[in-house]
Design brief:
This protein is an alpha+beta fold and 599 residues long. Among the domains are: 88-226, no CATH class; 245-296, no CATH class. Helix content is 22%, strand content 21%. The strands form 4 sheets. Strands 3, 4, 17, 18, 19, 20, 21, 22 and 23 form a 9-stranded mixed β-sheet that branches. Strands 6, 7, 8, 9, 10, 13, 14 and 15 form an 8-stranded antiparallel β-sheet that branches. Strand 9 and strand 10 form a beta hairpin.
Protein backbone atom coordinates (compact mmCIF):
# COMPACT_ATOMS: atom_id res chain seq x y z
CA UNK A 1 0.00 0.00 0.00
CA UNK A 2 1.52 3.38 -0.99
CA UNK A 3 2.77 5.75 1.64
CA UNK A 4 0.95 8.95 2.61
CA UNK A 5 -2.40 7.70 1.33
CA UNK A 6 -4.07 7.95 4.74
CA UNK A 7 -3.79 10.24 7.74
CA UNK A 8 -3.49 8.74 11.20
CA UNK A 9 -6.96 9.96 12.21
CA UNK A 10 -8.48 8.29 9.13
CA UNK A 11 -7.25 4.93 10.42
CA UNK A 12 -9.56 5.45 13.41
CA UNK A 13 -12.69 6.76 11.74
CA UNK A 14 -12.91 5.78 8.08
CA UNK A 15 -10.21 3.39 6.94
CA UNK A 16 -9.46 1.12 9.89
CA UNK A 17 -8.98 -2.67 9.72
CA UNK A 18 -11.61 -4.22 7.47
CA UNK A 19 -12.20 -1.11 5.34
CA UNK A 20 -11.97 -1.47 1.56
CA UNK A 21 -9.97 1.09 -0.42
CA UNK A 22 -9.50 1.61 -4.15
CA UNK A 23 -5.92 1.88 -5.41
CA UNK A 24 -4.97 2.80 -9.01
CA UNK A 25 -4.84 -0.81 -10.25
CA UNK A 26 -6.63 -2.85 -7.59
CA UNK A 27 -8.70 -2.73 -4.43
CA UNK A 28 -7.40 -3.70 -0.99
CA UNK A 29 -8.81 -4.35 2.45
CA UNK A 30 -6.90 -2.82 5.37
CA UNK A 31 -5.29 -5.55 7.45
CA UNK A 32 -5.85 -6.27 11.12
CA UNK A 33 -3.72 -4.85 13.91
CA UNK A 34 -1.37 -7.86 13.88
CA UNK A 35 0.01 -6.68 10.52
CA UNK A 36 0.57 -3.08 11.57
CA UNK A 37 4.18 -2.08 12.04
CA UNK A 38 4.41 -0.41 15.43
CA UNK A 39 7.52 0.44 17.42
CA UNK A 40 5.74 1.09 20.69
CA UNK A 41 6.68 4.72 21.32
CA UNK A 42 3.28 6.45 21.27
CA UNK A 43 1.24 5.10 24.16
CA UNK A 44 -1.86 7.10 25.10
CA UNK A 45 -2.72 7.25 28.79
CA UNK A 46 -6.44 7.48 29.54
CA UNK A 47 -7.38 5.06 32.36
CA UNK A 48 -11.11 5.77 32.26
CA UNK A 49 -11.38 4.82 28.59
CA UNK A 50 -9.00 1.87 28.91
CA UNK A 51 -11.07 0.35 31.72
CA UNK A 52 -14.26 0.66 29.66
CA UNK A 53 -12.67 -0.97 26.63
CA UNK A 54 -11.21 -3.82 28.64
CA UNK A 55 -14.68 -4.65 29.95
CA UNK A 56 -16.26 -4.39 26.49
CA UNK A 57 -13.69 -6.66 24.86
CA UNK A 58 -13.25 -8.92 27.90
CA UNK A 59 -9.45 -8.82 27.80
CA UNK A 60 -7.09 -8.86 30.83
CA UNK A 61 -4.90 -5.98 29.66
CA UNK A 62 -5.04 -3.37 26.97
CA UNK A 63 -2.96 -0.49 25.64
CA UNK A 64 -4.05 2.52 23.61
CA UNK A 65 -1.59 3.60 20.93
CA UNK A 66 -1.54 6.14 18.17
CA UNK A 67 -1.77 4.57 14.69
CA UNK A 68 1.62 4.21 12.99
CA UNK A 69 2.75 6.97 10.69
CA UNK A 70 4.40 6.32 7.34
CA UNK A 71 7.82 7.09 8.85
CA UNK A 72 7.53 3.92 10.97
CA UNK A 73 7.55 1.64 7.93
CA UNK A 74 10.63 0.60 6.04
CA UNK A 75 11.56 2.47 2.92
CA UNK A 76 8.98 2.13 0.11
CA UNK A 77 6.66 0.10 2.33
CA UNK A 78 3.70 1.02 4.46
CA UNK A 79 3.46 0.36 8.21
CA UNK A 80 -0.18 -0.59 7.69
CA UNK A 81 -0.72 -3.84 5.83
CA UNK A 82 -3.38 -4.62 3.22
CA UNK A 83 -4.67 -7.64 1.30
CA UNK A 84 -5.97 -7.83 -2.25
CA UNK A 85 -9.78 -7.75 -2.07
CA UNK A 86 -11.95 -8.49 -3.91
CA UNK A 87 -10.26 -11.15 -6.00
CA UNK A 88 -12.63 -10.82 -8.94
CA UNK A 89 -12.12 -8.20 -11.66
CA UNK A 90 -13.84 -6.98 -14.80
CA UNK A 91 -12.03 -6.19 -18.05
CA UNK A 92 -12.07 -2.46 -18.63
CA UNK A 93 -12.98 -2.44 -22.32
CA UNK A 94 -16.67 -3.34 -22.75
CA UNK A 95 -17.98 -5.10 -25.82
CA UNK A 96 -21.45 -5.33 -27.30
CA UNK A 97 -23.70 -8.19 -26.29
CA UNK A 98 -24.30 -10.74 -29.06
CA UNK A 99 -27.99 -10.76 -28.11
CA UNK A 100 -28.54 -7.00 -28.31
CA UNK A 101 -25.86 -4.63 -29.68
CA UNK A 102 -27.16 -1.85 -27.41
CA UNK A 103 -26.22 -3.85 -24.32
CA UNK A 104 -22.59 -3.70 -23.18
CA UNK A 105 -20.83 -6.48 -21.35
CA UNK A 106 -17.53 -6.87 -19.48
CA UNK A 107 -15.64 -10.07 -18.82
CA UNK A 108 -15.46 -11.32 -15.21
CA UNK A 109 -12.05 -12.78 -14.31
CA UNK A 110 -10.36 -14.02 -11.14
CA UNK A 111 -7.14 -12.67 -9.64
CA UNK A 112 -5.37 -15.98 -10.32
CA UNK A 113 -6.02 -15.57 -14.05
CA UNK A 114 -4.26 -12.19 -14.28
CA UNK A 115 -0.75 -11.62 -15.54
CA UNK A 116 0.89 -8.59 -13.94
CA UNK A 117 -2.50 -6.99 -13.21
CA UNK A 118 -3.71 -7.55 -16.76
CA UNK A 119 -5.88 -10.12 -18.48
CA UNK A 120 -4.81 -12.07 -21.55
CA UNK A 121 -7.89 -12.47 -23.76
CA UNK A 122 -8.46 -15.16 -26.36
CA UNK A 123 -6.44 -13.14 -28.89
CA UNK A 124 -3.51 -12.98 -26.42
CA UNK A 125 -3.99 -9.24 -26.03
CA UNK A 126 -3.24 -7.77 -22.60
CA UNK A 127 -6.19 -5.81 -21.28
CA UNK A 128 -6.54 -3.64 -18.19
CA UNK A 129 -8.89 -4.71 -15.41
CA UNK A 130 -10.61 -3.04 -12.47
CA UNK A 131 -11.95 -4.67 -9.28
CA UNK A 132 -15.59 -5.68 -9.40
CA UNK A 133 -17.67 -3.41 -7.22
CA UNK A 134 -19.95 -6.09 -5.76
CA UNK A 135 -19.07 -8.35 -2.82
CA UNK A 136 -21.05 -10.14 -0.13
CA UNK A 137 -21.07 -9.28 3.55
CA UNK A 138 -23.06 -9.42 6.76
CA UNK A 139 -23.97 -7.00 9.54
CA UNK A 140 -21.25 -8.39 11.83
CA UNK A 141 -18.55 -7.21 9.41
CA UNK A 142 -17.68 -10.48 7.64
CA UNK A 143 -17.02 -10.03 3.92
CA UNK A 144 -16.29 -12.35 1.00
CA UNK A 145 -16.19 -12.52 -2.79
CA UNK A 146 -19.45 -13.34 -4.47
CA UNK A 147 -19.63 -16.89 -5.78
CA UNK A 148 -20.47 -15.69 -9.26
CA UNK A 149 -20.76 -19.12 -10.82
CA UNK A 150 -23.06 -20.46 -8.13
CA UNK A 151 -25.14 -17.29 -8.27
CA UNK A 152 -25.77 -17.37 -12.04
CA UNK A 153 -26.43 -21.14 -12.08
CA UNK A 154 -28.60 -20.91 -8.94
CA UNK A 155 -26.60 -23.61 -7.17
CA UNK A 156 -23.49 -25.75 -7.43
CA UNK A 157 -22.10 -26.18 -10.96
CA UNK A 158 -19.08 -27.60 -12.74
CA UNK A 159 -19.43 -25.10 -15.57
CA UNK A 160 -16.23 -23.10 -16.13
CA UNK A 161 -17.24 -21.10 -19.17
CA UNK A 162 -16.56 -17.33 -19.31
CA UNK A 163 -18.65 -15.04 -17.10
CA UNK A 164 -19.84 -11.57 -18.04
CA UNK A 165 -21.48 -8.60 -16.34
CA UNK A 166 -23.98 -7.16 -18.79
CA UNK A 167 -25.66 -3.75 -18.53
CA UNK A 168 -29.07 -3.75 -20.14
CA UNK A 169 -30.29 -0.28 -19.35
CA UNK A 170 -29.44 3.36 -19.84
CA UNK A 171 -28.15 3.74 -16.27
CA UNK A 172 -25.81 1.80 -14.01
CA UNK A 173 -28.50 0.76 -11.55
CA UNK A 174 -28.38 -2.71 -10.09
CA UNK A 175 -31.67 -3.63 -11.77
CA UNK A 176 -29.99 -3.18 -15.17
CA UNK A 177 -27.02 -5.48 -14.40
CA UNK A 178 -27.15 -9.16 -15.33
CA UNK A 179 -24.67 -11.98 -14.77
CA UNK A 180 -24.29 -14.00 -17.96
CA UNK A 181 -22.46 -17.31 -18.37
CA UNK A 182 -21.04 -18.61 -21.64
CA UNK A 183 -23.32 -21.64 -21.32
CA UNK A 184 -26.38 -19.43 -21.71
CA UNK A 185 -27.43 -19.10 -18.07
CA UNK A 186 -28.17 -15.57 -16.85
CA UNK A 187 -29.54 -13.89 -13.77
CA UNK A 188 -30.33 -10.35 -12.66
CA UNK A 189 -28.10 -9.07 -9.90
CA UNK A 190 -31.15 -7.32 -8.48
CA UNK A 191 -32.46 -10.69 -7.26
CA UNK A 192 -29.56 -10.87 -4.80
CA UNK A 193 -30.17 -7.41 -3.37
CA UNK A 194 -32.20 -6.68 -0.30
CA UNK A 195 -31.51 -7.71 3.30
CA UNK A 196 -34.00 -10.59 3.21
CA UNK A 197 -33.40 -12.08 -0.23
CA UNK A 198 -31.45 -15.07 1.15
CA UNK A 199 -30.13 -15.87 -2.34
CA UNK A 200 -26.49 -15.45 -1.26
CA UNK A 201 -26.88 -18.00 1.52
CA UNK A 202 -25.46 -17.98 5.04
CA UNK A 203 -22.30 -16.11 5.93
CA UNK A 204 -19.18 -18.29 6.17
CA UNK A 205 -17.58 -15.94 8.70
CA UNK A 206 -14.64 -14.96 6.49
CA UNK A 207 -12.41 -12.18 7.81
CA UNK A 208 -9.92 -11.39 5.00
CA UNK A 209 -8.51 -8.36 6.85
CA UNK A 210 -7.05 -10.70 9.48
CA UNK A 211 -5.77 -13.24 6.98
CA UNK A 212 -6.75 -15.29 3.90
CA UNK A 213 -7.95 -18.20 6.04
CA UNK A 214 -9.34 -16.34 9.04
CA UNK A 215 -12.90 -17.30 9.90
CA UNK A 216 -15.38 -17.12 12.75
CA UNK A 217 -18.74 -18.67 13.46
CA UNK A 218 -21.49 -16.58 11.92
CA UNK A 219 -25.14 -17.34 11.24
CA UNK A 220 -26.08 -14.08 9.55
CA UNK A 221 -27.51 -13.98 6.04
CA UNK A 222 -25.11 -12.83 3.35
CA UNK A 223 -26.14 -9.58 1.72
CA UNK A 224 -25.07 -7.92 -1.49
CA UNK A 225 -22.64 -5.11 -0.71
CA UNK A 226 -21.27 -2.40 -2.95
CA UNK A 227 -17.73 -2.13 -1.56
CA UNK A 228 -17.48 1.62 -2.23
CA UNK A 229 -20.89 2.43 -0.70
CA UNK A 230 -21.24 4.46 2.47
CA UNK A 231 -22.70 1.47 4.34
CA UNK A 232 -19.72 -0.80 3.61
CA UNK A 233 -17.86 0.23 6.77
CA UNK A 234 -18.97 1.82 10.03
CA UNK A 235 -16.18 2.22 12.54
CA UNK A 236 -17.19 1.66 16.14
CA UNK A 237 -15.40 4.14 18.34
CA UNK A 238 -15.57 5.20 21.95
CA UNK A 239 -14.42 8.58 23.16
CA UNK A 240 -14.02 10.32 26.49
CA UNK A 241 -13.05 13.77 27.69
CA UNK A 242 -10.01 13.67 29.97
CA UNK A 243 -10.99 14.86 33.43
CA UNK A 244 -8.89 16.78 36.00
CA UNK A 245 -8.74 13.84 38.43
CA UNK A 246 -6.46 12.07 35.97
CA UNK A 247 -4.38 15.14 35.24
CA UNK A 248 -2.46 15.85 38.39
CA UNK A 249 1.24 16.54 38.36
CA UNK A 250 1.96 12.99 39.45
CA UNK A 251 -0.16 11.49 36.65
CA UNK A 252 1.61 13.59 34.03
CA UNK A 253 5.03 12.72 35.41
CA UNK A 254 4.31 8.99 35.57
CA UNK A 255 2.91 9.08 32.03
CA UNK A 256 6.09 10.76 30.80
CA UNK A 257 8.28 8.21 32.60
CA UNK A 258 6.02 5.21 32.03
CA UNK A 259 8.36 3.38 29.68
CA UNK A 260 11.43 3.35 31.98
CA UNK A 261 9.19 2.49 34.96
CA UNK A 262 7.57 -0.34 33.05
CA UNK A 263 11.00 -1.70 32.14
CA UNK A 264 11.94 -2.30 35.80
CA UNK A 265 12.47 -5.95 36.68
CA UNK A 266 9.95 -5.91 39.56
CA UNK A 267 6.86 -3.78 39.06
CA UNK A 268 5.71 -4.56 42.60
CA UNK A 269 8.90 -3.09 44.11
CA UNK A 270 8.97 0.26 42.40
CA UNK A 271 11.00 1.69 45.25
CA UNK A 272 13.91 0.30 43.29
CA UNK A 273 13.58 3.21 40.89
CA UNK A 274 15.39 5.30 43.53
CA UNK A 275 18.51 3.49 42.44
CA UNK A 276 18.14 5.06 39.02
CA UNK A 277 19.57 8.61 39.37
CA UNK A 278 17.39 10.02 36.60
CA UNK A 279 14.14 8.57 37.96
CA UNK A 280 15.08 9.48 41.53
CA UNK A 281 15.48 13.12 40.48
CA UNK A 282 12.19 13.17 38.57
CA UNK A 283 10.21 11.68 41.49
CA UNK A 284 12.05 13.31 44.40
CA UNK A 285 8.92 15.26 45.40
CA UNK A 286 6.64 12.19 45.40
CA UNK A 287 6.11 9.36 47.85
CA UNK A 288 7.11 5.86 46.71
CA UNK A 289 3.65 4.40 47.34
CA UNK A 290 1.96 7.23 45.45
CA UNK A 291 4.15 6.54 42.43
CA UNK A 292 3.39 2.82 42.71
CA UNK A 293 -0.39 3.43 42.90
CA UNK A 294 -0.34 5.83 39.97
CA UNK A 295 1.75 3.42 37.91
CA UNK A 296 -0.77 0.61 38.47
CA UNK A 297 -3.68 2.93 37.69
CA UNK A 298 -2.15 3.86 34.33
CA UNK A 299 -1.16 0.26 33.72
CA UNK A 300 -4.78 -0.74 34.17
CA UNK A 301 -4.15 -2.94 37.16
CA UNK A 302 -6.63 -1.23 39.47
CA UNK A 303 -10.38 -1.61 39.31
CA UNK A 304 -12.21 1.62 38.57
CA UNK A 305 -15.67 2.58 39.63
CA UNK A 306 -18.03 1.75 36.77
CA UNK A 307 -19.49 5.20 36.23
CA UNK A 308 -21.06 5.92 32.82
CA UNK A 309 -18.80 7.97 30.58
CA UNK A 310 -21.01 11.04 30.37
CA UNK A 311 -22.07 10.93 34.01
CA UNK A 312 -18.47 11.44 35.10
CA UNK A 313 -17.98 14.24 32.57
CA UNK A 314 -21.18 16.06 33.51
CA UNK A 315 -20.24 15.94 37.18
CA UNK A 316 -16.97 17.73 36.47
CA UNK A 317 -18.34 20.20 33.94
CA UNK A 318 -21.25 21.18 36.18
CA UNK A 319 -19.12 21.91 39.26
CA UNK A 320 -20.06 25.04 41.11
CA UNK A 321 -16.47 26.31 41.43
CA UNK A 322 -15.32 29.28 39.39
CA UNK A 323 -12.38 27.42 37.82
CA UNK A 324 -12.09 23.69 37.11
CA UNK A 325 -8.73 22.04 36.53
CA UNK A 326 -5.31 23.63 36.43
CA UNK A 327 -4.26 26.58 34.27
CA UNK A 328 -1.01 24.90 33.36
CA UNK A 329 0.24 24.23 29.80
CA UNK A 330 0.63 20.56 30.71
CA UNK A 331 -2.93 20.35 32.04
CA UNK A 332 -5.42 18.56 29.82
CA UNK A 333 -8.51 20.25 31.22
CA UNK A 334 -9.15 23.82 32.29
CA UNK A 335 -12.56 25.51 32.45
CA UNK A 336 -14.11 28.74 33.69
CA UNK A 337 -17.64 28.98 35.05
CA UNK A 338 -19.25 32.20 33.82
CA UNK A 339 -20.98 34.34 36.41
CA UNK A 340 -24.72 34.31 35.88
CA UNK A 341 -24.69 38.06 35.22
CA UNK A 342 -22.80 37.33 31.96
CA UNK A 343 -25.69 35.39 30.44
CA UNK A 344 -28.80 35.86 32.63
CA UNK A 345 -31.04 38.63 31.40
CA UNK A 346 -34.69 39.59 31.78
CA UNK A 347 -34.81 40.28 28.05
CA UNK A 348 -34.13 36.62 27.31
CA UNK A 349 -36.83 34.33 28.68
CA UNK A 350 -34.70 31.25 27.98
CA UNK A 351 -32.08 32.35 30.55
CA UNK A 352 -34.43 31.23 33.34
CA UNK A 353 -34.09 27.66 32.03
CA UNK A 354 -30.27 27.62 32.10
CA UNK A 355 -28.37 26.60 35.21
CA UNK A 356 -24.70 27.16 34.30
CA UNK A 357 -22.51 28.23 31.40
CA UNK A 358 -18.93 26.97 31.41
CA UNK A 359 -16.14 28.03 29.05
CA UNK A 360 -13.80 25.08 28.54
CA UNK A 361 -10.51 26.75 27.65
CA UNK A 362 -8.60 23.51 27.35
CA UNK A 363 -9.83 19.97 26.86
CA UNK A 364 -8.44 16.69 25.61
CA UNK A 365 -10.54 14.07 23.87
CA UNK A 366 -9.31 10.50 23.37
CA UNK A 367 -10.99 8.46 20.64
CA UNK A 368 -10.33 4.71 20.34
CA UNK A 369 -11.37 2.27 17.62
CA UNK A 370 -12.59 -1.08 18.96
CA UNK A 371 -14.36 -2.68 16.00
CA UNK A 372 -16.65 -2.07 13.06
CA UNK A 373 -19.92 -3.14 11.46
CA UNK A 374 -21.36 -3.11 7.97
CA UNK A 375 -24.78 -2.08 6.66
CA UNK A 376 -25.82 -0.50 9.98
CA UNK A 377 -23.90 1.77 12.34
CA UNK A 378 -23.80 1.13 16.09
CA UNK A 379 -23.37 4.28 18.17
CA UNK A 380 -22.91 4.74 21.94
CA UNK A 381 -26.07 5.26 23.96
CA UNK A 382 -27.11 8.53 25.59
CA UNK A 383 -24.64 7.90 28.46
CA UNK A 384 -21.71 7.40 26.07
CA UNK A 385 -21.63 3.64 26.70
CA UNK A 386 -21.48 0.79 24.17
CA UNK A 387 -23.60 -2.30 24.65
CA UNK A 388 -21.65 -5.37 25.81
CA UNK A 389 -23.87 -7.56 23.61
CA UNK A 390 -23.23 -5.66 20.38
CA UNK A 391 -21.76 -7.96 17.74
CA UNK A 392 -18.90 -6.17 16.10
CA UNK A 393 -16.07 -7.33 13.84
CA UNK A 394 -12.76 -7.75 15.64
CA UNK A 395 -9.68 -5.77 14.63
CA UNK A 396 -7.30 -8.69 15.23
CA UNK A 397 -7.25 -12.37 16.10
CA UNK A 398 -6.29 -11.44 19.65
CA UNK A 399 -6.66 -7.89 20.94
CA UNK A 400 -3.68 -6.57 22.90
CA UNK A 401 -3.85 -2.92 21.90
CA UNK A 402 -6.23 -0.56 20.12
CA UNK A 403 -5.53 2.43 17.87
CA UNK A 404 -6.49 5.77 19.40
CA UNK A 405 -5.95 9.47 18.79
CA UNK A 406 -5.85 12.55 21.00
CA UNK A 407 -7.68 15.74 20.09
CA UNK A 408 -6.95 18.95 21.94
CA UNK A 409 -9.36 21.83 21.80
CA UNK A 410 -11.91 24.05 23.50
CA UNK A 411 -15.63 24.14 24.08
CA UNK A 412 -18.74 25.67 25.60
CA UNK A 413 -20.89 23.81 28.11
CA UNK A 414 -24.34 24.80 29.30
CA UNK A 415 -26.53 22.91 31.77
CA UNK A 416 -30.26 23.24 32.32
CA UNK A 417 -32.37 23.34 35.45
CA UNK A 418 -33.71 19.89 36.25
CA UNK A 419 -36.98 21.15 37.72
CA UNK A 420 -37.76 23.12 34.55
CA UNK A 421 -37.25 20.05 32.36
CA UNK A 422 -39.29 17.84 34.70
CA UNK A 423 -42.15 20.33 34.61
CA UNK A 424 -41.99 20.49 30.81
CA UNK A 425 -42.11 16.68 30.57
CA UNK A 426 -45.46 16.61 32.40
CA UNK A 427 -47.22 18.84 29.90
CA UNK A 428 -49.88 17.05 27.79
CA UNK A 429 -48.36 18.32 24.56
CA UNK A 430 -44.91 17.05 25.49
CA UNK A 431 -46.26 13.64 26.49
CA UNK A 432 -48.18 13.34 23.22
CA UNK A 433 -45.17 14.27 21.12
CA UNK A 434 -42.96 11.92 23.13
CA UNK A 435 -45.36 9.05 22.45
CA UNK A 436 -45.21 9.76 18.70
CA UNK A 437 -41.42 9.64 18.78
CA UNK A 438 -41.46 6.44 20.84
CA UNK A 439 -43.86 4.79 18.37
CA UNK A 440 -41.49 5.59 15.53
CA UNK A 441 -38.58 4.13 17.49
CA UNK A 442 -40.55 0.95 18.23
CA UNK A 443 -41.13 0.37 14.53
CA UNK A 444 -37.44 0.91 13.78
CA UNK A 445 -36.28 -1.28 16.68
CA UNK A 446 -38.66 -4.14 15.88
CA UNK A 447 -37.20 -4.54 12.41
CA UNK A 448 -33.66 -4.62 13.83
CA UNK A 449 -34.43 -6.66 16.95
CA UNK A 450 -33.42 -3.81 19.26
CA UNK A 451 -34.75 -3.22 22.75
CA UNK A 452 -37.25 -0.48 23.54
CA UNK A 453 -35.07 0.34 26.56
CA UNK A 454 -32.51 1.84 24.19
CA UNK A 455 -34.83 4.74 23.40
CA UNK A 456 -32.88 7.79 24.66
CA UNK A 457 -35.91 9.65 25.96
CA UNK A 458 -37.62 12.94 25.21
CA UNK A 459 -35.12 15.17 27.14
CA UNK A 460 -32.24 13.75 25.12
CA UNK A 461 -34.00 14.35 21.81
CA UNK A 462 -34.80 17.93 22.81
CA UNK A 463 -31.24 18.70 23.91
CA UNK A 464 -29.81 16.94 20.87
CA UNK A 465 -31.97 19.04 18.56
CA UNK A 466 -31.02 22.24 20.39
CA UNK A 467 -27.36 21.26 20.11
CA UNK A 468 -27.64 21.04 16.31
CA UNK A 469 -29.39 24.39 16.16
CA UNK A 470 -26.70 25.98 18.32
CA UNK A 471 -23.83 24.54 16.31
CA UNK A 472 -25.29 25.99 13.13
CA UNK A 473 -25.75 29.42 14.76
CA UNK A 474 -22.32 29.48 16.43
CA UNK A 475 -20.47 28.41 13.28
CA UNK A 476 -21.45 31.68 11.60
CA UNK A 477 -19.19 33.69 13.93
CA UNK A 478 -16.80 31.42 15.83
CA UNK A 479 -14.22 31.08 13.05
CA UNK A 480 -14.62 27.32 12.65
CA UNK A 481 -16.67 25.66 9.91
CA UNK A 482 -19.78 23.82 11.10
CA UNK A 483 -18.17 20.47 10.25
CA UNK A 484 -15.34 21.20 12.72
CA UNK A 485 -17.72 21.47 15.69
CA UNK A 486 -18.81 18.42 17.68
CA UNK A 487 -21.31 17.74 20.43
CA UNK A 488 -21.83 15.78 23.62
CA UNK A 489 -25.37 15.68 24.97
CA UNK A 490 -25.90 14.90 28.66
CA UNK A 491 -29.33 13.61 29.61
CA UNK A 492 -28.70 11.01 32.29
CA UNK A 493 -29.38 10.67 35.97
CA UNK A 494 -26.82 13.34 36.81
CA UNK A 495 -28.50 16.19 34.96
CA UNK A 496 -29.03 17.81 31.57
CA UNK A 497 -26.51 19.70 29.49
CA UNK A 498 -24.77 20.24 26.15
CA UNK A 499 -21.08 20.49 25.36
CA UNK A 500 -20.20 21.98 21.98
CA UNK A 501 -16.51 21.65 21.30
CA UNK A 502 -13.85 21.46 18.65
CA UNK A 503 -10.55 19.65 18.66
CA UNK A 504 -7.46 19.01 16.62
CA UNK A 505 -4.83 16.31 16.76
CA UNK A 506 -2.23 19.03 16.31
CA UNK A 507 -0.24 19.63 19.49
CA UNK A 508 -1.03 23.35 19.39
CA UNK A 509 -4.76 22.74 19.83
CA UNK A 510 -7.30 25.38 18.77
CA UNK A 511 -7.58 29.16 18.52
CA UNK A 512 -10.15 30.36 21.05
CA UNK A 513 -13.10 31.08 18.76
CA UNK A 514 -15.52 28.96 20.77
CA UNK A 515 -14.57 30.67 24.00
CA UNK A 516 -15.48 34.03 22.52
CA UNK A 517 -18.72 32.56 21.17
CA UNK A 518 -19.50 31.31 24.68
CA UNK A 519 -19.22 34.84 26.07
CA UNK A 520 -21.95 35.85 23.61
CA UNK A 521 -24.03 32.72 24.09
CA UNK A 522 -27.43 34.45 24.66
CA UNK A 523 -27.22 36.00 21.20
CA UNK A 524 -26.46 32.62 19.61
CA UNK A 525 -29.31 30.90 21.47
CA UNK A 526 -31.73 33.61 20.39
CA UNK A 527 -30.67 33.23 16.75
CA UNK A 528 -30.93 29.42 16.95
CA UNK A 529 -34.46 29.57 18.38
CA UNK A 530 -35.63 32.11 15.81
CA UNK A 531 -34.25 30.08 12.91
CA UNK A 532 -35.79 26.89 14.29
CA UNK A 533 -39.39 28.12 14.29
CA UNK A 534 -39.71 27.93 10.51
CA UNK A 535 -37.83 25.57 8.18
CA UNK A 536 -37.38 26.23 4.47
CA UNK A 537 -38.99 22.82 3.86
CA UNK A 538 -42.10 23.56 5.90
CA UNK A 539 -44.85 22.44 5.97
CA UNK A 540 -43.39 19.09 4.79
CA UNK A 541 -40.71 19.06 7.51
CA UNK A 542 -43.01 20.08 10.36
CA UNK A 543 -45.73 17.61 9.30
CA UNK A 544 -43.44 14.57 9.21
CA UNK A 545 -44.57 11.72 11.45
CA UNK A 546 -41.98 9.28 12.83
CA UNK A 547 -44.52 6.48 12.33
CA UNK A 548 -44.56 7.01 8.55
CA UNK A 549 -42.72 3.87 7.41
CA UNK A 550 -42.73 4.90 3.75
CA UNK A 551 -40.37 7.81 4.45
CA UNK A 552 -37.86 5.65 6.33
CA UNK A 553 -37.26 8.32 9.00
CA UNK A 554 -38.61 6.64 12.10
CA UNK A 555 -35.92 8.21 14.33
CA UNK A 556 -36.66 11.78 13.30
CA UNK A 557 -39.52 14.13 13.96
CA UNK A 558 -39.51 17.62 12.46
CA UNK A 559 -35.95 17.45 11.13
CA UNK A 560 -34.44 17.74 7.68
CA UNK A 561 -31.42 19.15 5.84
CA UNK A 562 -33.05 22.58 5.89
CA UNK A 563 -33.04 22.86 9.70
CA UNK A 564 -31.43 20.22 11.94
CA UNK A 565 -29.32 17.78 9.94
CA UNK A 566 -25.59 18.52 10.04
CA UNK A 567 -22.39 16.73 9.07
CA UNK A 568 -22.48 13.19 10.52
CA UNK A 569 -18.94 13.65 11.82
CA UNK A 570 -20.29 16.39 14.11
CA UNK A 571 -23.27 14.45 15.42
CA UNK A 572 -22.92 11.77 18.09
CA UNK A 573 -25.99 9.90 16.81
CA UNK A 574 -25.48 10.13 13.03
CA UNK A 575 -28.37 12.60 12.68
CA UNK A 576 -30.90 10.38 14.46
CA UNK A 577 -33.13 11.28 17.43
CA UNK A 578 -33.94 14.83 16.32
CA UNK A 579 -37.15 16.85 16.56
CA UNK A 580 -37.41 20.60 16.18
CA UNK A 581 -40.92 20.58 17.69
CA UNK A 582 -39.54 19.73 21.13
CA UNK A 583 -37.35 22.87 21.12
CA UNK A 584 -39.60 25.55 19.62
CA UNK A 585 -43.21 25.62 18.37
CA UNK A 586 -43.59 24.63 14.71
CA UNK A 587 -46.49 25.23 12.34
CA UNK A 588 -47.68 21.65 12.97
CA UNK A 589 -46.93 21.21 16.70
CA UNK A 590 -47.49 24.21 18.95
CA UNK A 591 -47.60 22.79 22.48
CA UNK A 592 -44.56 20.49 22.91
CA UNK A 593 -41.72 23.04 22.89
CA UNK A 594 -39.34 23.56 25.83
CA UNK A 595 -38.55 27.15 24.76
CA UNK A 596 -40.84 30.03 24.02
CA UNK A 597 -40.23 31.46 20.52
CA UNK A 598 -38.22 34.70 20.72
CA UNK A 599 -40.00 37.84 19.58
Amino acid sequence: MPENILRQSQLITTYGPGAMIDLPDRSVIISGLDDWSYRGGDRIEEPRLTAKLRALLNVPSLDLRTPPSHEEGKRRTSPVGAYIFPRWFIVKDPISSPVNPQWSRQRLVEWSHLDRYRFLDDDRKRKNVVPVRFVSGCRRGCVDDLDWRRLVHQGYTKCRRPLWLEERGTGAGIADIFIVCGCGKERSLYEASGPKSGILGRCKGKRPWIGPYARERCNENNRLLVRTASNAYFSQTMNVISLPEYDSGLASTVAEQFKPLDALASVEMLADFRRNPDLNTVFEDFDDQDVLDEYHRQKGGQEHEDVPVKTAEFKVLNKGTEFIGENDPRSKFYAETLHHRAWNSETHSFSALIDKVVLVHRLREVVALLGFTRFEAVTPDKDGELDLDVRRASLAEEIRWLPAIENRGEGVFLSFKIDKINRWLKRPGTEKRGQELLNGYRMWAEERRRSEEDFPGVPYIMLHSLSHMLMTAISLECGYPASALRERVYAGDGGYGILIYTGSSDSEGTLGGLIEAGRRLPRHIERALKDGVLCSNDPVCADHSPSDVLEGRELQGAACHGCLLIAETSCEQRNNFLDRALVVPTIATQNAAFFEPPE
